[in-house]
Amino acid sequence: MSKPKFRSVGHNQRKLDGVALVTGKARYVDDIELRGMLYAKILRSPHAHARIVEIDVREARSLPGVCAVLTYQDVPRIQYTTAGQGPPEPSPKDTFVLDDKMRFVGDRVAAVAAKTPQIAEAALKMIKVEYEVLPAVLNMEHAMDPDAPKVHEIPSANGISIPERNIAAQVEVTDGDPGRGFAEADLVVENLYRVGYVHASHTEPHICITYLDETGRLVVRTSTQVPFHVRRIIAPLVGRPIGQIRVIKPRIGGAFGAKQEVLLEPLCALLTLKTGCPVRLQLTREEVFVSSRTRHPQVLRCKVGVNKDGIIAATQLDVLANTGAYGSHALTVQCNTGSKTLPLYRTLQYREGVNNVHFKATAVYTNLPVAGAIRGYGAPQGYFALDTTMDEIAHRLGMDPIEFRLKNLIREGDSPALLEQLGEGREGVKQVLKSCGLRECIRRGRAEIGWDEKRARRDQGPVKRGVGVAVLQQGSGIPGIDMGAVTIKLNEDGSFNLLAGATDLGTGSDTILAQIAAEVLGTDADKFSVLSSDTDLTPFDTGAYASSTTYITGMAAKKAAGKVRKMILDRAARMLSERGEDLVLEDGQVRGRKESVSLGEVCSDALYQHDQEQIMATASHISYDSPPPFSAHFADVTVDTETGRVKVLEYIVAVDCGTAINPQMAEGQTLGGIQMGLGYALSEEYIFDDRGRMLNPRFMDYKIFSAADMPRIKVILVDTFEPTGPFGAKSVSEIPTNGPAPAIANAIFHAVGVRLREVPFTPERVLAALKSRDT
Amino acid sequence: MDVFRYLAPESVEETLQLLDEGAGGVKVLAGGTDLLVQMKERGLRPGLVLDVAGLHELRGIRMEGKYVWIGPLTTHWDLAHSALIREHGLALAQGASKVGSPQIRHRGTIGGNIANASPAADTVPPLVVLEAEVELRSLNGSHWLPVESLMEGPSRTALRPKELITGVRFPHRAPGSRSQYEKFGSRQALSIAVASVAVAAVQEKGRFARVRIALGSVSPTVVRATRVEEILTGEALGEDLIAQATASVAQQCRPIDDVRGSAWYRCQLVEALLARILLCWGEEWMAG
Question: Are residues B225 and B249 in contact, defined by beta-carbon separation less than 8 angstroms?
Fold first, then answer.
């Protein structure tokens, strides 16, 4: 197929908000100062598990400048889930805005609103709490023990799988006949893998400002990925109908999933309703570490059987996940650990999509920080186990790791049956793979890193080099669930307003949507003024998650633009007295065979001259496909066998995201995902004491990759055309996070012959692995 | 941060006067890279902050008799880039170049790094092996004290509340002498040492005539590895000697487990870092 030539799509359009962002003019949540605004602070539990026996706030309330103090006695006793997902929410409703039981160090005891942050801090110290300290569950592997303390006592009617065993959620699916597959396999490899807590590390902490407008409606200005879910979820908690609530998402300083949560808004709004005043509630970095949301720690047992020709016979993945004190995203993240990984490979007797696959996941409660959505959403954990296992099998078979994978990867036209069973916390939707550039990703990445030469290399001295590969997929939105809507209207100067419920978090989606609409309307993206996510002004969108905005909302933008285009052409045909099919819309002009009119003239005609109307349209989009982007990652590393230090010298990423609407931004997303993945693989780790308190909740001691640590990274965009996506686009934002852990683990094995089965591969952990091999 | 008094004295004399009147609760502000963090995040509440950044006589690097003199307000950046320091005390330039990040190296000072008395301070092991001294001055006069004797514990020094560090010095490089500093941090920048080793030695006729070794982040203060120094003194560098030296260095450590590393790992690291320095020298001695 020869590729169509686009005027806007596929170009490195400068971000529409770029200049405002880099000149400091963009307005984040905190960039407004309202008259009489109060500052809120939260008192947090010092105990991992405790019950409040008595709480005395009288002294705090009487401190001058304190306007409100809320405890569990002052808020409605309604259980909800903080997970920002559509109803019926797949996450258990196990959370109160404030409760009398504390379930982790950092859980919410009380909230204060005062005239200054200093007064609020001082008031927190005056709250007297008597706790009955309870035994705590601090090890996920013992959470299901019969004598383990119970984190939640509420009935399972709230969506908790088995509260008496601390099981928040569980899922189990079988496809084909894995038992037979393993029995017939010539080689079966089975190992345990461990991944820990990870911080999303967004620059802007969670923050929210709430106030009442002149009509008494509640306005929530918040740093969120899910403004419409916020509005719906807080309505019962604050006792207001949805129509009395407006949620505004200004510029966002990063989120990465950790803001797909309704954490601060109910509490902040209740303080506003109590005082009548605007209230600002911002978490400190320490609070973001401990009390917001993290990646789910997991213990994964991965078992793969293979015949001697290198064809996979059966695959089994058994996951134990720690959801922490609350079950936010407990079911769906774990579903994804299987559904985003296992379909990547075919197994023996593959027919009509049926693989010999068994997948089981159990998410347990502990008295530790709460996990939730973070970029990759379960897939990074799954790929660490699955891809490392694939590498090990290739080694045991004496095959090149790439050749082994190539024998088993899925192909266009495949329809993995597992995806029909394993959806987003419910049954899935049948998927047929319509675009797959995976083999091209592997081919180009392999050449770029110099795979064949580097695999043959042998080193002298204490520092060893190695190269490793990982092969990955993700999804594009949640099929049958995610919906995005876009409104576009034309102005007299030929400019457009684009109103989208989609939530630009710094991701660049405002620009992407404008590029897509501009393509349809034959104009430039910077003719669009984009307003994203104000529940009063923009149409609905499920939110910025699941790699959905370009694929889902992008298609809504394309459809809305198509409707506007038709209105423009119909009117222009009348203005030019020509037939519609003879008109061409390009460069802001409608050209007929004889004359042309500008978009501005068309709009003026519509607004002031004939049959007056606003040229404007709204369109929605939902997809029953979730086409996976594909990627191959290659890491070239050194391992210092005396200190255990792993250094990544070079990292190659080839990614098939369909048509890259904006190649530079697609590359930026990929680089950012690699940066997150490198820290996850090598240095980022929550460290706890024996009472469940995090010891390193600060960037000095929690090591994300700094600029000085970054290796040379080369991103290769492999062009494919996804027929169900806008101009052939698929997603790109989450997939890069999946690769560094397995690619680096495999490179370490190539360098020193040791398998690392627990992330992060800190120097100490690597040295210990080397020493235990040597003894 | 609570309210505090801030004064920026214009001379050393005035500073000493204010320190004398301050009666505790006074903190000296130089680069602020430690003090401000302690005030903002660790609850330090000084009544008076004395900003000495304007005391230009306390800056600079120069030869003074048989010493290299360093003003205590000299930044890590300037130390790392000074030809004089690189010539006479390479380990110190290396240590200064490993502090924090470029921004911190431009603000942080050698006097502050010494006074903060962290066992992980990057300039202190080099200063100890270079036999450096600090000048402590008060209204009652001044005296020079070896850096090694100044360190009394984590964040504790022999510096009295009314004293100010007014100079740092170490002897010229003797013929045949050299020094080196190796640090292991958990990443390339903005990283506190998990372990560090500094070595200074004088070589005569292929043998160690004098050798000093200091270890960072493995004890409550930077410590000398005197046992290892004894093993090396008088000997020629060879594989056996290096093995013997590295095998005994861990015995000189009293490390702790913390978020940056376990005691076990710190011992492994000092062995690896010491071996790295000695191997590198050994190869050059053989070659030269």
Answer: yes
Q: From the list A683, A700, A767, which residue is nearest B268 (CB)?
A: A767
Low-confidence ranges of chain A (pLDDT < 70): 1-4, 154-157
Residues A548 and A633 occupy one common structural domain: no
Claim to verify: residue A542 and residue A491 sit in the same structural domain: yes
- Residues in chain A whose beta carbon is closer than 8 A to a beta carbon of chain B? 642-645, 683, 687, 695-696, 700-701, 703, 705-709, 762-764, 767-768
Whole-angstrom distance, CA of residue B155 vs CA of residue B120:
11
Domains: count for chain A: 4
- pTM for the complete prediction? 0.96
Structure tokens at B101: 């990040």
Adjacent-strand bridge partners of A187: A306
* Residues paired with A218 in a beta bridge: A212, A245
**SS3 for A172?**
strand
What count of residues does chain A have?
A: 775
Distance in angstroms (rounded) separating the CA atoms of residues A443 and A445: 6
Instruction: Check the CA dihedral B54-B76-A711-A705 and report its sign.
Output: negative
The pLDDT of residue B285 is 75
Q: Which residues in B lie closer than 8 A to residue A708 (C-beta atoms)?
A: 101, 187-189
Alpha-carbon distance A100 to nearest alpha carbon in chain B (angstroms): 30
Q: Which amino acid is at A265?
A: E
Chain A hits for B188, Cβ within 8 Å: 706, 708-709
Considering only CB atoms, A695 lies closest to which of B259, B261, B276, namely B259
State the nearest Cα–Cα gap between A643 and chain B, in angstroms: 6
Task: Pick B56-171's CATH classification: 3.40.50.2300, 3.30.465.10, 3.40.50.1220, 3.40.50.1820.
Answer: 3.30.465.10
Please judge whether A642 and B265 are an interchain contact, meaning their C-beta atoms are less than 8 angstroms apart. Answer: no
Same domain membership, residue A457 and residue A411: no
* ipTM for the complex shown: 0.92
Closest CA to A720 of A410, A476, A434, A448: A434
Nearest one of B112, B106, B107 to B124, comparing CA atoms:
B112
Angle at A333 between CA A99 and CA A253, to 5 degrees: 75
CATH for B5-51, among 3.30.43, 2.40.128, 2.60.40, 1.10.10?
3.30.43
Task: Note the pLDDT tens digit of each residue in B11-68.
Answer: 999 999 999 998 668 999 999 999 999 998 888 999 999 999 999 999 999 999 999 9
Q: How far is CA A168 from CA A45, A87, A163, A626, A644, in A?
A: 22, 18, 7, 27, 38
What topology is assigned to B178-287 in CATH? Enolase-like; domain 1 (3.30.390)
- Class of residue B13 by CB neighbours under 10 A (exposed 0-12, middle 13-18, buried 19+): exposed
Compute the nearest-CA separation of B143 from chain A (Å): 36
Decide: A187 and A393 in contact? Cβ < 8 Å.
Answer: yes
pLDDT tens digits for range B137-187: 999 999 999 999 999 998 899 999 999 999 999 999 988 899 999 999 988
Q: How far apart are alpha carbons A256 and B164 in whole angstroms?
A: 48
How far apart CA A412 and CA A420 sit, in angstroms, is 17
Nearest chain B residue to A710 by CA distance is B188
Domain CATH number, residue A595: 3.30.365.10
Cis peptide bond prior to A178, omega within 30° of 0: no
